[in-house]
Amino acid sequence: MNQSPEFPHSHEEPWLPYSGRGHRDPRAGQPAVQVEHLSVRYRKAGSDALHAVSLEVAIGQRVALVGPNGAGKSTLLKALAGLVKPQSGHMALFGNPVGACHHRTAYLPQRTDLDWQSPLTVSDLVMTGRYVHLGWLSWPGQADRVRVRRVLERMGIADLAERQISDLSGGQQQRTLLARALVQEASLFLLDEPLNAVDEATRDVVDELLTQHTQCGGSVLVATHDLGRLMESFDSAVYLCEGQVESILPFGRDPLASLAPRPASSGASK
Amino acid sequence: MLGLSTGCVSRVPNPPDQAQVWVVATYSILGDWVQIVGGEHVKVTTLVGPGGDAHTYEPTPQDSVALHRAALAFENGIGFESWLEKLFVASHSAAKRVVVTEKIAPRKLISPSGGEEIDPHVWHCPKNAEAMVREIASALVECDPMHAADYRRRADEYIREIHTLDAWIGEQIATIPESHRHLVTTHDTFGYFADRYGFEVSSVMGAVSSEATDPAASKLAAVIDRIRAAQVPAVFAENIINPRLTEQVAKEAGVSIVPSLYTDALGPPDSKGATYLDMMRFNVRTMTEALR
Amino acid sequence: MNWLLEPFQYSFMRQALLASLLVGTTCSLLGVYVVLRRMAFLGDAVAHTTLPGLVIAYLNHWNLFVGAIVAAVITALGIGWLSRGQRLREDTAIGVSFSGMFALGIVMISRVQSYRDFSHMLFGNVLGVTTADLVGIGIVSFLVCAVLLLVNKELMLTTVDPLHGESIGLSAERMRYLLLILLALTVVTGIQAVGVVLTTALIVTPAATASLITRRLDRMLLLAVVFSACSSVAGLYASYYLSISSGGAIVLACTVLFGVAYLATRIHWRQLPAQYDAT
Predict the structure, then answer these.
(1) Complex confidence, ipTM
(2) How many CB contacts within 8 angstroms connect chain B with chain C?
(3) In a designed cystine with A219, which of A32, A58, A120, B73 is the match (CB 3.0 to 4.6 A)?
(4) What is the Cα A256 distance to its own chain's centre?
């Protein structure tokens, strides 16, 4: 199933044009995410935040990234989102370099990374999810507004449309961010701790959303602490510890999953 | 209507019963002279009033109004009123600008950066004052020929008083021993006075600027050294500037500081320096007493 | 009724009003973003950094505006560069840069022996605005406002969620540089036209007042412009009738307006039921 994706340059700068045009289409037959021997070191850090990490997320899969704090989960997601430059290794999203398909990739940072005091309403914030398709000098139109309304309904926060984001609870914030990912019409979700300190109802909504997403052919990579539902919700889990992949566990819900070649923690298997 | 004539252009008609020429003088010393020469024929508005520092003055709308309504605007020029140019243009004033120092031989100063600056403090020398008063008179005569005789007469009378003043100053100065003829003030203002009456001058702050208010440490040290070397008995504060720095210098050099001379502006109407003649007499008396 | 019209029968007052309105509009629009991004004292900082540029331009008989812009842009970019990568916080970088630049300007002035007051040569006064000045102010204002309008959504995104912006290719750093450059242009135009104190106050105070009253961005922008306009009018009237400095009067009017808004919102919030979050 896997051909070796084209890696033009191993240390290629993430190419992320902010524009409504210029995006590449996903390459056929490629997994949603492919990471090989990725190493990331922050400036002035003593050791690598990520060291020779390899993993894969096939299309339609829901993969959990678990591990203690500081294990490198956020770093890995940021690298895939193009926010962090790796020192070595390869990454491909849908067979293209990071950034070429960012319109199909929705990255949700941890909730604390946003300035929730900004004077925006919920629909304003969700609308920013359309910006990747709009680009410079282009403004949201009626179709975009309709999309925003629909995703708000889907996330159960339609009544919050005109609420200021500074007035939201943790769960409401998370649903807003997910609504933004939905309105982007991305096929790959990179979520950083989406279930951190949220209420039960929100967990259910999120869970259902991700299930529907993968059923429709979307892919999900989630960094999470919530180990409770690990086996039922996810197709596999990647354990990270101190920047390295400790193990990858498929959960065998899909009988064919165990046959798909998986990279071991060192070296690729072809 | 009688007060305005074809000698100068003014778009603002004065009320019919107003027989006066409306003029503006930029600072109080000029205002004093213009009032004396013009008498009841002029209505003078002075912009920088008594005690004000024309170097750092901030104009108000009433100043623009006065300029707008005036037929003549008397100014010192030579960079003394750096705020005047834009204010005048913006006020759309049709007044004739009279630079009263036009005919005065300038005292030049070469700055360290090589540029040439002219000392604007011309009024401390009575000879210059006389020239300025004559300028005022001829401007008024040109603007209002009907009262030319009055203007000339008043100017002549006043100039006679200036001559008397000049002679008196000469006598007073003669009583100061030559070695003590050294004027130390807060800023460079007595240049022309010094030239006329044979003084040395030093100043604590040099030129005045609202941005650069502290002088270089070396400059201060140099002033203190000069004071000590010249064995000057006293330094002088000024009415327009905060004397704190001068007090420091005085203390350091071990000399007394004499309270304010009137330098760039007249004093308030009830003070000893309310007119130019009063100001000069007060200054010279104070200097003579302190330096004798 | 007559006292309302009397000041403005003079063209210099009309020019002063137009200048304050133009400068005020641009400054307060920019000011909203500056306040939201917690860069409030940047306006004052940029104004101070122009001093060495102005002095050099003045002494060499170059165009003052160009000298100031060059100094301001260099400093703005320098601040951006110093504080990138989170090593040095932005406010620290700003503080260091602007006091250093200002001091450089003062040192330069102190070496020049001059009888002229530099502040009058370098900075403007709202009463000294000529028609030529108005054209310059108008052009810069139009430019800055146009750019702000065109990149409004990108500015907001980088304010609320810079990471998301980065992930879709919108560089937060570039947006910050753009904002700094717009600020430099506005500040330099403002200080040449109406002086330092007025320009810097018009950036922060009307925006701060607007942020007290509303939490919606579009209303905040509108209110900031309205407040700066009202303060300009009130300040000019006060300056005319009370014979006080026009720039200072307008700034005080802005501040009074802020005080009134502050008290009003305090009283308003106290009257609401306790369950409302007042922040």
Answers:
(1) 0.80
(2) 133
(3) A32
(4) 24
